[in-house]
Amino acid sequence: MNVLLQIMDTAGAALVFVGAVICLLGAIGMLRLPDVLSRSHAATKPQTLGLLLVLAGVALRLRGGMDLATLALIGFFQLLTSPVASHLVARSAYRTGQVGHSELLFDDLDEQLTVAEEEPEPGPGPKPGPERD
Amino acid sequence: MSGPETVDRVLLTAAVVVLVVAGMLLLVRIWRGPSMLDRAIALDVCAALIIAGLGARSAAALDSFYFPIMLVLAFLGFTGSVGIARFIAVRDRPPAHRRPAGKEGKG
Q: Membrane spanning segments where (chain A) (predicted)?
């Protein structure tokens, strides 16, 4: 039994280390990738995979019921909130023109925005102010 | 100190060192980042790195003292980048990539 606990301790430390290395990979990607969208792609790795590995390692080392519940909540909230931030950042990057359009293979959103702009307005004139949908 | 505990100690210390190096690279990105959106993404990653560092510290010390801080960071760490993307980045446009003609000025 003692050997099993020791194996769990070492496996937890190894998981924490692997998660930290994945966080480092994400940071290197943040530094080297050229675009807001590709940087957002690189930012996803430390936020989800690295953090979940670190939390799994901590859970393997601590092994208490309350600690496991708190760690599960941390992972759940991270999984819940990081897509929201990522989506809003990518949307704002597209709307403010920081996406390299020549490097995209498919761009359905541009087509939809253009079609929506070319439709005749039902009201007496174009709405003032920026689009906020 | 026996053998496996030394291995654990070395692994956790290396994890903390790797996380600190990743944080320094992120600081370079926050410093250089051409637009506010890059900084927003980098701050988001920075919150994740702080959570991972606190997790590594908790795994090394075998206590759960910092778990509420990790929970609050995981729950509220995205508000900063959402605020930047929603309210600040619209006014801050770097002159690099441009949209096709006729679509400037759409917030």
A: 12-31, 68-90
Residue B105, min C-alpha distance to chain A (Å): 8
| Chain A residues 15-54 within an 8 A CB cutoff of chain B | 16-17, 19-21, 23-24, 26-28, 30-31, 36, 39-40, 43, 46-47, 50-51, 54
Q: How confident is the model at residue B94, as a pLDDT?
A: 54
pLDDT, mean of residues A16-22: 94
For residue A101, the 8-state DSSP code is G
Judge residue B75's burial from the number of C-beta atoms within 10 Å of its C-beta, 0-12 exposed, 13-18 middle, 19 or more buried: middle
Domain map (residue ranges) of chain A = 2-97
Say what the ipTM of the complex is.
Answer: 0.79
* Residue B86 Cα, gap to closest chain A Cα (Å): 7
Residue A84 contacts residue A44 (beta carbons within 8 Å): no
φ and ψ at residue A107, rounded to 5 degrees = -140, 80
